Amino acid sequence: MSLAAAPFTSLPTPLPAPERTKTRLLELIKRHGPQTAQDLAYKLEVSVPAARRHLCDLQDGGLIESRTERPGGRGRPQHVFALTDQGEASFPKTYSGLCVDVLRHVQQLFGQGAVMQVFDARSAEIAARLQAEVPLSAPLPVRVQAFVRVLCEMGFDAVLEQDGDTWLVSKRNCPNLTVARQFQELCVSELTMYQTLLGVPMTRETRIACGQSTCLYRIGP
């Protein structure tokens, strides 16, 4: 009698030991606040030089920073390691869910138009901040290229192409996708902001929030 082979379930590949140690170091700093190399080595049960090597790697990667603090506000200054903003961002966050909840309450309390007013105020503030980087006095090709650089810095992974007399800008990532899927006002407001920033007409032909692979914008006549 033959026996059926048991189904094989692949297990996730474990992190290499050095990476596991770095992850544990980040978790310890996250949970307990700024720590000395000695404290971290003790908690990890590794030597201080070994802990320092991993800390240097994390510091080179921009995940932690070193600074001097007095424990409890007094005593001798200590050299400690703390998370940077990039290090904080490596831990799970629920900002998008919180944003959607807040906007839903704004809509319920003040009406549909209130959400649009919130997005328009945000867009006006962003446009004012970016105007120096995309000056209206510059020629259109220069403005468009600067505009795409700004989009990339904002996390949109944008690319630029020319199609005859028009420019095509493709945003291949939407860092605000959770919000954009539930509040199309965000995309409407962003389009208005882009036109204000560039000072020329612009149309949007595709949207990631609608299930397409990119947000495609056509700039020009």
Question: Would you give an account of this structure?
Answer:
The protein has 221 residues and is of the alpha+beta class. It has 2 domains: 17-89, Winged helix-like DNA-binding domain superfamily/Winged helix DNA-binding domain (Arc Repressor Mutant, subunit A), CATH 1.10.10.10; 95-219, Muramoyl-pentapeptide Carboxypeptidase, domain 2 (2-Layer Sandwich), CATH 3.30.1380. The chain has helices at residues 17-32, 37-44, 48-60, 85-89, 95-110, 112-130, 140-153, 177-182, 185-198, and strands at residues 64-69, 78-83, 158-163, 166-171, 202-206, 215-219. Strands 3-4-6-5 form a 4-stranded antiparallel β-sheet, with helices on one face. Helix 1 (17-32) packs across helix 3 (48-60) and helix 6 packs parallel to helix 9 (185-198). The longest helix is centred in the middle third of the chain and has 19 residues, at 112-130. The chain is elongated, with a radius of gyration of 25 Å. Mean pLDDT is 87; it is low at 1-16. It holds the Pfam family HTH_20. This is Transcriptional regulator. InterPro entries: ArsR-like_HTH, WH-like_DNA-bd_sf, WH_DNA-bd_sf.
